[in-house]
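Same chain as my last thread, 321 residues:
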Amino acid sequence: MREPALPENEDERLRTLHALELLGSGPDERFDRATRIAQRLFDVPMALVTLVDDQEQAFKSCIGLDESGTARSVSFCGHALLDDAALVVPDTHEDDRFHDNPLVVGEPGIRFYAGYPLRAPNGHRLGTLCILDHRPRSLAPEDLDLLKDLTAMVEQEIRAIYMATRDEMTDLPNRRGFRQLARKELELCARGRLPAALVFMDLDAFKPINDRYGHAQGDRALKVFARQMREAFRSSDVLGRLGGDEFVALLTQTDEKAAHAAVTERFRPALNAYLEHVGFAHAIGFSCGIVEFDPDRNPALDELMEEGDALMYQYKGRKHR
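reply #2:
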């Protein structure tokens, strides 16, 4: 048996999956419709919508199986994540990847598998819509087209959930999306006794930008700020726009001193250099408050955000004395 490899963007993929909060949320009629249709169309005993987490594969919708998921290491869908095309296994007994897989030699006795990866709007593959059979079989090209169409139906539902956690203007997580992601990261930090730092940021004199240059220029400033956040901070950091001109970043495995360096030595110079390079009409200044997460004390996210907000306003007040 060959265990599935990890996608190159695994950390970002998992972050997208966790932000949707689909794992552990129980059955959902939106996805059950797709598996019912797939079972009838293809006359198969099993049809699934799967979500592939770091160690487990969860069944978000399941027809024909009693289990709620499997280990990722034995999953077929873990292999399907690695490509945008369908993974079709006409006969598992003839495939070196699966012939001795526990799901093949034992229950449920999979002989045929076909699945398309489910993509979030940002392109990350989260799981699959797949059909399975106890007997070998093949799919005609028109059958694959039907399976792809059903997959697109499921992706539309995922898109609706995804958009509820994104800020449409900047494409950063919104307040809700940030809180979902940040809570997950802080749980991991507390469990592993790892430091983290929250950076609460607010643009300086944003209202005068709108008043002098117009709201369209104000929107451009917000987009530029968000873009440079993505460029300057690490992919493992959790970023968000809380609303208005307030932004936030949770830097994991980072203490307060390192967080200050990330802001003053990476982000602020990168932002200013970009504004100069593109000839932006005005400067974009910002104030920030940085608070360190103590895994021993394990404060709630709301407490960290309130403290970061207060420190940011203290900093802003000192700048304008």
